[in-house]
Amino acid sequence: MTLILALDFGGTKLAAATVHAGSKQWLGYERRLSPANANADTDLEIMRSVINSLLKGAKPEAIGVSFGGPVDATTGKVRLSHHVLGWENVPLRDLLEEEFGVPAYVDNDANVAALGEYRFGAGQGYDSLFYMTVSTGVGGGWILNGKPWRGAEGMAGEIGHMVVDPSGPVCLCGKRGCVERLASGPYMAQDVREVLRNVRAACPEDIPPSRQGRQGRRGEVLRELVGDNLELITGQIVSEAAAAGDDLAKEILYRASWALGVGIGNVANLINPQLFVLGGGVMKAGEDFWQVLRKVARETALPEVPSEIVSAALGDDAPLWGAVALAEDVLG
User: Fold this and answer.
1) Which fold has domain 3-116+317-331?
2) 133 pairs with which residues across the strands?
3) pTM here?
4) Average pLDDT per run of 10 along the chain, which is 332 residues long?
């Protein structure tokens, strides 16, 4: 049977899986965290180790790759990663084809995940959908008339850098108030840490909590969850604290869901896909998060423009299943 190798290079995680073409069951699957000081070389080294563990000497017929950053899908060259150093202009497809001697196809993770959900997940039965991944960053991928749509230079779907709050905080892209700046996990964690540090500076520890006012008590659950070590706060911790009633965490999550809702509503007005499929770690934030997002999206979109919004059926594996679809397409 035809063996396919699927790879997913994420901003903080690396994953790989093997599957027989036409099957919906993994033969092997492995996921590892990328180290905090990772660069392209360390990511490639870890991925090689994972691949060798999975293949055990077997040879795949084709390789599909999801990469967390801009990719020239025509050449398979990675343009850069916004979250991992050293990926500038790396010919990833050529590297894999030379090393394994089989055809490979590389594309941006949101594009690949959109294909995965369309082929194997929540998008089955639809002709057009917009997939969004909301985790380390925020990206989007299109399926239009049953086919991936990448745009003139492969950059279609970059909803993460749609400006929804022109007076908002500065994003890594240089603009203010981007969807990614307000809704991605690392930025939410960064904003929470900044607020808590400012609160501590304004409310010295020798002042009893009862005299610090409401501003001083916001963030108590967050502090408890990380043992008062603010560097341990992540987007997931913010979600957990919000679920436990922490006012600061709830405010940050509300802002994130609002930003996503505005972005989705605008995209609905512009291209009017049948379906929005949302995946990534931040989308596990809970029902309140989803309610705000859907409400704001409805209010932003025109009344006659539907905006059906669902959770990704494939979860964190959407990019891997999309990589399988890429490999199957390469094989014809």
Assistant:
1) Nucleotidyltransferase; domain 5 (3.30.420)
2) 139, 279
3) 0.87
4) 95 93 95 90 96 95 95 94 91 96 95 96 97 90 94 90 97 95 96 90 49 58 95 94 94 97 97 95 90 97 93 93 95 82
